[in-house]
TrEMBL record:
GO molecular function, one term: hydrolase activity
NCBIfam families: PRK13291.1
Keywords: Hydrolase
Top-level lineage group: Bacteria
Pfam families, per the entry: DinB_2
Cleavable signal peptide: none
Keyword Metal-binding annotated: no
Domain DinB-like: 35-167
Organism: Dyadobacter luteus
Record-linked InterPro entries: DinB-like (IPR024775), DinB/YfiT-like (IPR034660)
Record's protein name: Putative metal-dependent hydrolase
Record bears the keyword Hydrolase: yes
Length: 178
């Protein structure tokens, strides 16, 4: 299988200029569904499966799940900052270095699945409460030098949710683990 398809199983994220209310609702639903999808998929996987890279020279499924927890905790915090400050500058982090930390390589996946579950409960509650003015609020990302609107951030994390879920799902399908 082509490496690019393994790396980006649903393609790369492309931001739109704007998002309709229906698109925002769909994106929030995708974010909301991720914890259950991960728990249902990975609940019976053993350490051998969880320690399998989803692609050559890629992260293990364990690292992917811990990465999603780290990333979505940061996204939840960025959402709160954008809603309470005027275009705050967020703190980027080195996700590759975080994925190489000992906890990301060895901790039980259940720890991050529960983090994702509870962070998403709070985050989705907040996202669903946002009005048009809230969706237009922004933060500045110094790593990309971009100002990010909340509706774009929601779309990005809907993509991010499905992107990483598909890493695990497609690995399982390729290996007949479902």
């Amino acid at each position: 299988m082509e490496l690019e398809k393994l790396r980006y199983p649903i393609g790369q994220f492309t931001a739109q200029d704007s998002y309709s209310p229906a698109e925002n609702k769909t994106n929030i639903q995708i974010i909301s569904a991720l914890p259950s999808k991960f728990i249902n998929l990975l609940g019976s996987w053993n350490d051998e499966k969880l320690n399998t890279p989803y692609r050559p020279n890629g992260w293990t499924v364990r690292q992917v799940v811990h990465h999603v927890a780290d990333s979505h905790i940061n996204a939840y915090t960025r959402t709160r900052l954008a809603l309470t400050e005027d275009n705050p500058t967020i703190k980027p982090y080195d996700e590759t270095a975080w994925a190489e930390l000992p906890d990301a390589k060895t901790a039980q996946v259940e720890l991050s699945l529960q983090l994702i579950r509870y962070v998403h409960l709070r985050w989705v509650l907040l996202l669903n409460s946002m009005n048009d003015a809230d969706l237009a609020r922004t933060y500045f990302h110094p790593g990309s030098q971009e100002t990010v609107r909340m509706d774009t951030m929601i779309a990005h994390y809907a993509w991010h949710s499905e992107h990483h879920y598909q890493h695990a799902f497609q690995l399982g399908a390729r290996n007949n683990w479902q």
